[in-house]
């Protein structure tokens, strides 16, 4: 497929979108999602040129129904409000567009679905996502598809050398090196790409400190509940205050007490989740999305 000619988002914007919509990273890290989004679309939320795939991760609309099932709800990758689709010839086309948030979610949900249904392995899910065993007409050979996936994994590993992905400032050269592992680009494009990826003086709508807390909560795999203490609970309290700004605000003391539980129960009811006051994968995904 023909890629867009330049990046569609800054590196910071793409990190923030991914953290907010990928939910609990689980098997698939934020860094891996960044690698996929770079290789597939250069961070552009667009329709595939000459094809029907959509979004940062270029997922086929024919797959979207898998994210709207009861199984998807039970396993935590359900997406509400996706645009309608229509079968046209041998393709399923999207009747509308994906928002940036939806674009991240469909890639995230596709990987989770493949992990749940293929063979419960990271590489197996990536092979399914990347169409390694695709039998139709394509210019991409099986060997080439595997090479692309290995590039994703190399990029992921290189980005994970950054202690905290949201604190990449000053490590632009390291990030560029990582992105090149996923999708090469020539020296002639580097200056243009850098200007888009790392614009000086650009601020996202999420304060840097909140991004730090989003990252901590996003990377937590624990169930958070009454009696827990520590940085994960402090991060949870900051995110709850941001997502539900109406007073009273939670004290950000890192203690999961009655007030924190009450706000979580309130949030779960508003989000149509089981109001048990426990922050598991589904509640985390809603808080981050």
Q: What keywords describe this structure?
A:
289 residues, Muramoyl-pentapeptide Carboxypeptidase, domain 1, two-stranded antiparallel sheet, 2 strands, 49% helix, 3% strand
| Tally of individual domains | 2
What's the number of extended β-strand segments? 2
Give Rg in angstroms.
19 Å
Strand content: under 5%
Q: Tell me, what's the shape? A: globular
Biggest beta sheet summary: 2 strands, antiparallel
Low-confidence stretches: none
Oligomer: single chain
Tell me the helix content.
Answer: 40-55%
Cα(first) to Cα(last) distance is 30 Å
Global mean pLDDT? 88
Give, in order, the helices and strands. HHHEEHHHHHHHHH
Structural class: mainly alpha
Spatial arrangement of strands, main beta sheet: 1-2
Instruction: Please report the number of helical segments.
Output: 12
Polypeptide structure, described:
The structure is a single chain. With 289 residues, the protein is mostly helical. The protein has 2 domains: 11-197, no CATH class; 208-288, PGBD-like superfamily/PGBD (Muramoyl-pentapeptide Carboxypeptidase, domain 1, Orthogonal Bundle). 49% of the residues lie in helices and 3% in strands. It contains 12 helices and 2 strands; from the N terminus they run H-H-H-E-E-H-H-H-H-H-H-H-H-H. It has helices at residues 11-22, 30-41, 70-75, 100-119, 122-129, 142-159, 172-182, 187-197, 208-218, 231-243, 258-270, 281-288, and strands spanning 85-88, 91-94. Strands 1-2 form a two-stranded antiparallel ribbon. A hairpin with a 2-residue loop joins strand 1 (85-88) and strand 2 (91-94). Helix 1 crosses helix 4 (100-119), helix 1 (11-22) packs across helix 9 (208-218) and helix 6 packs antiparallel against helix 7. The longest helix has 20 residues, at 100-119. The two termini are 30 Å apart. The mean pLDDT is 88.
């Amino acid at each position: 497929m023909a890629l867009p000619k330049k990046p569609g988002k800054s590196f910071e914007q793409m990190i923030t979108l991914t953290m907010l919509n990928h939910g609990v990273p689980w098997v698939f890290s934020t860094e891996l999602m960044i690698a996929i989004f770079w290789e597939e679309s250069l961070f552009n939320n667009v329709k595939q040129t000459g094809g029907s795939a959509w979004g940062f991760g270029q997922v086929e609309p024919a797959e979207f129904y898998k994210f709207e099932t009861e199984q998807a709800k039970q396993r935590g990758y359900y997406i509400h409000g996706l645009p309608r689709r229509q079968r046209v010839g041998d393709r399923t086309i999207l009747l509308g567009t994906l928002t940036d948030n939806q674009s991240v979610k469909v890639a995230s949900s596709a990987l989770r679905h493949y992990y749940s249904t293929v063979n419960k392995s990271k590489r197996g899910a990536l092979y399914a996502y990347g169409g390694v065993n695709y039998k139709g007409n394509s210019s991409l050979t099986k060997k080439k598809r595997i090479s692309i996936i290995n590039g994703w994994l190399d990029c992921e590993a290189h980005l994970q050398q950054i202690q905290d992905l949201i604190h990449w400032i000053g490590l632009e050269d390291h990030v560029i090196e990582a992105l090149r592992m996923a999708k090469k680009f020539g020296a002639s494009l580097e200056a243009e790409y850098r200007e888009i990826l790392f614009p000086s003086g650009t601020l996202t709508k999420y304060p840097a400190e909140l991004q730090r807390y989003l990252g901590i909560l996003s990377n937590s795999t624990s169930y958070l509940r009454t009696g827990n203490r520590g940085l994960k609970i402090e991060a949870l309290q900051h995110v709850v205050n941001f997502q539900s700004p109406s007073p009273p605000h939670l004290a950000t003391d890192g203690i999961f007490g009655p007030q924190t539980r009450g706000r979580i129960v309130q949030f779960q009811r508003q989000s149509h989740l089981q109001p048990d006051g426990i922050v598991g994968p589904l509640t985390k995904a809603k808080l981050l999305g």
